[in-house]
Amino acid sequence: QVQLVESGGGLVQPGGSLRLSCAASGFTINNYAMRWYRQAPGKERELVARISSTGGSTNYADSVKGRFFISRDNNKNTVYLQMNSLKPDDTAVYYCYAAPFDTWGQGTQVTVSS
Q1: For the chain, what percent of residues have pLDDT higher than 70?
Q2: Is 54 left (phi over 0), alpha (psi -120 to 50) or beta?
Q3: Separation of alpha carbons 78 and 85, rounded Å
């Protein structure tokens, strides 16, 4: 069974950092690009970052460029999202997504507030 489990969310002050993890099971991420999305209250889900299967290519939403960094450890079957210089507008539920399987994780809440 293909599953994605996110972790690492929480409450952080503006300017702080968090690292999200997405652990995959039921498939090997080695051959697949992976994505992080987020959904804020009352808003549509939006693509935050994407990483190629090898990790050699990454793409980011304009709103997070230079602050967020996606990476992967294929040996651990895990994808990460390092989030720095967090802003209140980054408050959302963050989801990991595996397009080839059309599978979402359960999400992890990130709240940026003083």
Answers
A1: 100
A2: alpha
A3: 23
